[in-house]
Amino acid sequence: MRTALSPLALREPRSLAHALRMMRDDGLLVPLAGCTDLYVAANGGTLGGRRFLNLWNLDALRGIRAEGNRLVIGALSTYTDIIRSRLAAARLPMLVAAAREVGSVQIRNRGTVGGNIVNGSPAGDTLPVLAAAEAVLVLKSADGQRRVPFNSFYTGYRATVRRPDELLVAIEVPPVSGRQWFRKVGARAAQSISKVVMAAVREPQPRIALGSVAPTVMRATETEAVLAAGGTIEEATRALLSEIQPIDDLRSTAEYRRRVAANLLARFWTETRNR
Ligand SMILES: Cc1cc2nc3c(=O)[nH]c(=O)nc-3n(C[C@H](O)[C@H](O)[C@H](O)COP(=O)(O)OP(=O)(O)OC[C@H]3O[C@@H](n4cnc5c(N)ncnc54)[C@H](O)[C@@H]3O)c2cc1C
Question: Measured in angstroms, how far is the CA atom of residue 273 from the centroid of ligand 1?
């Protein structure tokens, strides 16, 4: 292993406002949250910058709360925070299910939902949940704030609409009334990146999102339309297989991913039928 961050610079903001001013005025700074993805990049030689902004002590980015009928999740919430949140369990159990599947205890204590989102791996476990829940991302800069629908955030493989001076501060989740479903398929139970991951909501119309089967997390909109129109699971499966674009890589083959995606769709539809 290479040494970690020693040749690199780490800035320590005193507050969120201070952090945002640094992001605007101090040249390109890479936000650093739990560092679980950045550390891997540092060791792999793929780190995209040399100057970092430590978000870890910014309590303004923590907390899981209700605001009106929305669930608001601070970007710095860890998987452990999500697992321990009664509010998340009551309103978005599929996110809690996803958080339980991430890495190991150490990664769940350190890794944040904001890091998972901005890192933008198509295998990120929370991403299908947020896509199916139609979450909204709150991005903040020193000059203002904007809300971006989660389903418009990614523009390509690991590419997002976030500007370099913006931080993701929170995730807003509107009420989800239908039955929620989540399943991750990996090589083993712990410390495995998804081969295929799916989150779905059954009512009032099916909302189905998948990870690891396309360059970004994707909503299976054609499949959703078939099921909403009363189509059979066979018809829906044909639609799914025509809209996903899995690849062969070191974790799986495209063919295996196609089969697993089809099986997950069938399980979602069966398991939520009469619950
Ligand atoms: C051993 C191991 C196992 C893992 N297992 C899983 C797994 O099972 N499932 C899974 O999905 N992932 C897994 N991961 C990946 C990683 O843990 C998650 O993606 C995690 O959520 C990243 O969060 P972080 O806070 O550590 O991000 P960091 O590493 O700190 O940052 C990741 C990226 O997000 C940016 N960023 C972070 N926060 C913000 C913010 N608030 N605003 C703007 N940009 C921000 C950073 O600049 C960086 O580009 C694993 C990683 C390791 C090392």
Answer: 34
Each residue of 35-86: pLDDT tens digit? 999 999 988 888 888 899 999 999 999 999 999 999 999 999 999 999 999 9
pTM exceeds cut of 0.85: yes
- Which pair of tokens denotes residue 177? 């009334």
pLDDT tens, residue by residue, 148-197: 999 999 999 999 999 999 999 999 999 999 999 999 998 776 667 888 99
User: Phi-psi category of 242—alpha, beta or left, where left has phi over 0 and alpha has psi -120 to 50?
Assistant: alpha
Give the Cα separation of 141 and 222 in Å (integer): 36
User: Is residue 251 pLDDT above 90, yes or no?
Assistant: no
Nearest to 117 by CA among 213, 34, 222: 34
Please work out whether the CB of residue 75 comes within 6 Å of at least one atom of ligand 1: yes
% of the chain residues with pLDDT over 90: 87
Residue 82 CB less than 6 A away from ligand 1: no
- CA-to-CA distance for 242 and 246, rounded, in angstroms? 11
Cα 249 to ligand 1 centroid, rounded to whole Å: 21
Residue nearest to atom 15 of ligand 1 (CA): 37
Nearest C-alpha to atom 8 of ligand 1 is from which residue? Answer: 102
- Residue 81 CA to ligand 1 centre (angstroms): 15
Q: Where are the alpha helices (DSSP H) in 45-155?
A: 79-84, 86-91, 93-101, 105-110, 113-119, 127-132
Residues 6+ apart with CB under 8 A from 188: none
Specify the residue with its C-alpha closest to ligand 1, atom 50: 103
The response to whether residue 33 sits with its C-beta less than 6 Å from ligand 1 reads yes
Ligand 1 atom 31: residue of nearest CA: 115
Q: Which atom of ligand 1 is nearest to the CA of 48?
A: 49
